[in-house]
Design brief:
The protein is an alpha+beta fold and 164 residues long. Helices cover 40% and strands 20% of the residues. It has four helices and four strands; from the N terminus they run βαβααβαβ. The C terminus is likely disordered.
Length: 164
């Protein structure tokens, strides 16, 4: 019996209006191969031009959550005795190698179940200086969408599930 898992994610993307932003996000999630959600609901939309302070604070919070997840994931490997790259020679296949796999996917910029903030424009968990400059020049095009997503099929997910 599988348990329903709910996750919350923040997505940064460009669009001319809220409706276009939501359509683009839902299309992205529908076509994404690594994760399947049974349902996705956009719970909040912020346009940078309408609420710059709230927008930037929410982005910062999401990026901070991503960094926290990454730090905890690396700490876990260190606690298991893997502190240097050379230690990977002795990393057993199974749970620990899957944990490393999650970390590498995250660093590569893949959206995952543990991604709190995801930048759809650059396929990353942060924002480049170039994109920050573009956001300053055209804030009306940048949207931050918060979602609640559910899945009852955790066996199909590559990433670790955090139960809420």
């Amino acid at each position: 019996m599988s348990k329903t898992v709910q996750t919350i994610h923040l997505f940064l993307l460009k669009a001319h209006d809220r409706r276009s932003a939501e359509e683009r996000l839902l299309t992205f999630l529908d076509r994404y191969d690594l994760i399947h959600f049974d349902s996705v609901k956009v719970t909040r939309s912020i346009c940078m031009a309408h609420d710059k302070t709230g927008f930037l604070q929410t982005v910062d919070r999401g990026i901070s959550e991503n960094r926290k997840w990454l730090a905890e994931a690396v700490t876990f490997l260190e606690q298991e005795g893997f502190e240097a790259v050379r230690d990977l020679n002795d990393l057993p296949q199974g749970y620990l190698s899957k944990h490393l796999h999650e970390i590498v996917h995250f660093l590569d910029g893949f959206f995952g179940i543990d991604s709190m903030f995801y930048n759809m424009e650059e396929g990353s968990h942060g924002i480049s200086r170039l994109l920050k400059e573009e956001m300053k020049q055209a804030p009306e095009l940048f949207w931050l969408l918060e979602t609640e997503a559910c899945t009852g099929r955790p066996g199909f997910l590559f990433e670790k599930l955090k139960m809420m």
